[in-house]
Amino acid sequence: MEAVKSSNRQEQHVTEIKRKQLTLAIVGCGGISEHYMRAIAAMDGVHVVAAVDIKPDVASAFQKRHQIPKIFTDYRDMLASARPDAVCVCTPNLLHAPVSIAALQAGAHVITEKPMALTPAQCAEMIHAAKTAKRQLAVGFQYRFHPATQMLKRAADAGQFGKVMHVKCQALRRRGVPNWGVFGQKKLQGGGPLIDIGVHVLEMAHYVMGSPRPISAAGNVWTFDGNRPNDVPCMWPGWDWQMHDIEDLAVGQIRFENGAILQIEASFIAHIEKDVWNFQLSGSNGGANWDPPQIFTNQAGTMVNISPAYLPPMDFDGLFKAKLENFVAAVLDGSPLESPAEAGLAVQEMIDGIYRSAESGHEIALRSR
Question: Residue 225 belongs to what domain range?
Answer without folding.
Answer: 144-313+339-365
